[in-house]
Design goal:
18% strand, five-stranded mixed β-sheet, 33% helix, 6 helices
Amino acid sequence: MKRSILMVGESNVGKTHYGAQLLKRLIVGGGALYMEGAATNLTPFEKAMDSLAEGRATEHTPSTTYVESIWPIADSLGQSASLVWPDYGGEQVRSLVTERRVPGAWRERAVSATDWLLLVRLHTIRTANDMLSRPINTLGEGRVDETPHQVSDQAKLIELLQMLLHVAGINRDAPLNYAQPFGAAHLLG
């Protein structure tokens, strides 16, 4: 079975930086993962690789941009996959949750991918008081909170995953398969 990995992340999580670094390693070779053929549309990552080689950060990807690059990769065990590495403004992912709507293009991406890679920058997560962070026994306390209610970043991440699981038709009552994902250690290292 040919596997397809979809990368998902909001703004400022480093999708383009990470993609450029991984692409450079795949091109140079010598690691546990390698290119198994020609990648499609490397244009957005070439500029990012040039910036990183000069020690500069890459520019923010505009919110209206969505450019998909497909990288045929394989690992040292002979497993192969198509890594679907998009370059897009992370605002698109944020709008999935805020608008509570999954556009057709994102629905197709979630359905067609056999694996997902979710990028989260933990140190930027806001931890607002909500039902996930406040003990339930404090709900009856008469404390007046003058700050407007905001949904926490943790709750937004959970909602994003639930929405993508739903549109992909994945049974949320069945346990997810956390078995050795394709090249996970290699993608993270």
